[in-house]
Specification:
- This protein is mainly α and about 110 residues long.
- It has one domain (about 1-109).
- About 80% of the residues lie in helices and about 0% in strands.
- The protein has helices at about 1-15, 20-35, 50-65, 70-109.
- Helix 1 (about 1-15) crosses helix 4 (about 70-109) and helix 2 packs antiparallel against helix 3.
- The radius of gyration is 22 Å and the shape is elongated.
- It starts with a helix and ends with a helix.
């Protein structure tokens, strides 16, 4: 699940990049609108009704993989990894400070 979150965040950053083609950004918007829209090609009946949503989403994933320039995706992945590493370092530093504060509190009593 963590890898999915990181991939979606990288994808979001890549879509925000000015180097990503406009047609890809518009395709993502159209896909989201279609999936959230109550109007579907196949009515949303159990199981069968979601086939068109899955097909549209699969097509959009393929378009994103092929359409976003590799250098932009690489830069977005590096930004996500950097942020994850920084968050982990900040959490570790915060935890160490709290442990030291707690140890000092215990010693003072």
């Amino acid at each position: 699940m963590n890898k999915l979150k990181m991939s979606l965040t990288a994808l979001y950053l890549a879509l925000k990049d000015k180097g990503t083609p406009l047609w890809i950004k518009l395709g993502v918007i159209a896909t989201v609108i279609y999936i959230l829209s109550p109007i579907d090609l196949i009515p949303d009946l159990p199981v069968l009704g979601y086939i068109d949503d899955v097909m549209v989403l699969s097509l959009m994933i393929t378009v994103l993989r092929k359409g976003i320039p590799e250098d932009i995706m690489k830069k977005a992945r590096e930004a996500v990894n950097s942020q994850v590493n920084q968050t982990a370092a900040d959490a570790e530093k915060y935890a160490e400070e709290k442990i030291i504060d707690y140890d000092e509190f215990i010693k003072s009593k």
